[in-house]
Amino acid sequence: MRLTKPMLLAVLALLLAFAGDALARRGKMDLLQANQYAWSGAIRWGDFEGAMGMIEPGYREAHPVSDLELKRYEQVQITAYRERSSSADKKGGVALRDIEIGVVNRHTQAERTVRYREEWRWDEATKNWWLITGLPDLWEGE
User: Fold this and answer.
1) Span of the secretion signal (predicted)?
2) Per-domain residue ranges for the chain?
3) How far is the first Cα of the chain from the last one, in angstroms, to the nearest whole number?
4) Confidence of residue 46 (pLDDT cuts 50, 70, 90)
5) What dotted CATH number matches 5-131?
6) Which of 92, 95, 98, 109 is most deeply packed, by most CB within 10 A?
7) pLDDT at residue 134 above 80?
8) Using one digit for the tens of pLDDT, what is the confidence trace for 12-42?
9) Of 89, 97, 84, whose CA–CA distance to 28 is shortest?
C-alpha cells in the first residue's frame, strides 16, 4: 500500500498530537516535582508562612492558620524532612507523599519524629499542583 500525501500528513499530525500530549503530561509531573521540592524546602527552613502559599486556596480559606498557630511553628526547628514513599495518578491529578519530619523544640531541645502525608491535587483551571492537606501537625494533637 502506498501512502498518499494526505495520509502521510494525517499520520504525522497524529504523531505530533501524541508527542504533544506526552510532553504536556511530563511538564505536569515536572511541575509537581518542583512544587514538592519548594514545599519541602520551605518546611525545612521553617518558612511556614511561605509554605502556606502552596496550599490550595479553598483549603486555606476553610482552614485559616491563626497568628497564635504561626507563633507555635516558630518554637520548633526542623532537623529532617524525608520522603518515605510517594505515588502519583497522572490522569486523576492526585499525588501522595509520606513524609517523616525531625522536629526539635527550641525551648526544651527535645527532638521527636513526626509522620505526615502530603496530598497534592492538579488544578486544571490554574494549571498548578496544590497541597490540600495543610501545614503538618508537628504536635500530633498535643
Assistant:
1) 1-24
2) 5-131
3) 74
4) very high
5) 3.10.450.50
6) 95
7) yes
8) 444 444 434 444 455 899 999 999 999 999 9
9) 89
